[in-house]
Amino acid sequence: DYKRSEIQEQINQTNEELNIVNEDLTENLRQIEKLDFNIKSNEETISDLNNEISKIKEEVSKATKELENATIEYVKQKQLLDERLVEIYESGETNYLEIVLGSKSISDFFAAYYLISELTSYDIELLEFVESKKNEIEQNKFKIDEQKKNLDNQKRNLSKKEIALSNTRVL
Length: 171
Description:
By secondary structure, the chain is an all-alpha fold. It is built from three helices and no strands.
């Protein structure tokens, strides 16, 4: 009977140790599941960040192209404006009133008046166009700068997530 009780005691002790091992195993499995979840979550976040970075790069590329086009157009129109201003300066003080009043007939008067008003309108439109292009260029530069800052932030976030994922995998 003593042997039996000793064997039963060993069985009970072994069962207790087995229960402890099972509890540890269960806890370890829970931790592994949690780590797997964190890995998958980080991988999804990294994928989202990569997509966002690609999108921002496309936007920066598009905005840069728009900036280049606007700059080319601005340079052309600015050159026209400069040439027009040189012509006005070189022609000296042309008094529009003298041109209109120097007309020999009423048809000359209206033709001169029409020509002067067209030149003036053209000059004003050209000036406004050059100014608007200049503003557009400044806005595009600002937009590109903001997008580049956003891109840098996304890259930093991506780097942090990749480090977190790497650290999680090491565990």
